[in-house]
Amino acid sequence: MSFDEDPxxxxxxxxxxxxxxxxxxxxxxxxxxxATVRAFxxxxxxxxxxxxxxxxxxxxxxxSEHIFPNAIIESGFEEIRNRAPWPTEAGEKxxxxxx
Length: 99
Known about the structure:
Elements: E1 2-5, E2 12-16, E3 33-40, E4 65-73, H1 77-82
Antiparallel strand pairs: 1-2, 3-4
C-alpha cells in the first residue's frame, strides 16, 4: 500500500491499494469462471468539479473506469451471486445453458 500526502499539512490525501489474488484451475469444480470485471477510480479529477472553469464535464477523470474483459474469478463467486440480497428482477439473472 502507498499513499500521497499534502505537502503543506502532511495529511494523507490518497491511498493506493493493489491486490493480486491467485485463482486455481480446478476443472472438476468448473473453476475458474471467465468474467468481465470493472475497476472504478474517482469519477472527477478534483474534489469540486463544479468549480472547474469549463464546467464539471471538463473535470471528468478519463481513467475512472477500467474494464478487464478477460478476467477470471473463483467458482465460489456463484454462491455469492445466488445469495445476493437484491431481488432477481433488479440483480443478476441466472445464466441459461445457451450463455
